[in-house]
Amino acid sequence: MNPALPLAVLFAASFMWGLAWLPLKQLERMGLSGIALTFIACGTGAALLAPRFVRERRHWRGQARWLLLIALLGGYANLAFTVAMIYGEVVRVMALFYLLPVWGVLGGWLFLGERLDARRATAVAAALAGALLILGGFDALRGAVSWTDLLAISCGLTFAGNNLVFRARQTIPVASKAAAMLFGATLLAAALLVAGGQPWPDTSAFGWLAAAGYGLAWLLVATLGTQFGVTHMEAGRASIIIILELIIAVASAVLIGGERMSPAEMAGGALILAAAVIEARRVGK
Question: What is the pLDDT at residue 189?
Answer without folding.
Answer: 96
